[in-house]
Specification:
The chain contains one helix and no strands. The chain is mainly alpha-helical. It has a domain of 38 residues. The longest helix has 54 residues. The protein is rod-shaped.
C-alpha cells in the first residue's frame, strides 16, 4: 500500500532536484553573458585610454 506522505515526500524531492538543476543552468548562463559584457567594457575603456593618450601627446 502506498502512503500519501511518501508520495508528497518524493514530489518535494523531485522539485528540489529540478530547482538545483535550474539554478546551476541560470548561473552558468549569467556567467557566460557577463564575460561577453566585460569584453565590451574593456574595449570601450581601451578606446577611451587611447583617446586620452592622444590628447596628452597633442
Amino acid at each position: 500500500m502506498v502512503n500519501i506522505g511518501d508520495i508528497i515526500f518524493q514530489f518535494i524531492l523531485l522539485l528540489v532536484l529540478l530547482a538545483i538543476i535550474t539554478a546551476i543552468i541560470v548561473v552558468i548562463r549569467s556567467a557566460v553573458r557577463n564575460r561577453g559584457q566585460s569584453k565590451n567594457v574593456e574595449q570601450k575603456l581601451d578606446k577611451v585610454i587611447e583617446m586620452l593618450e592622444k590628447d596628452k601627446r597633442e
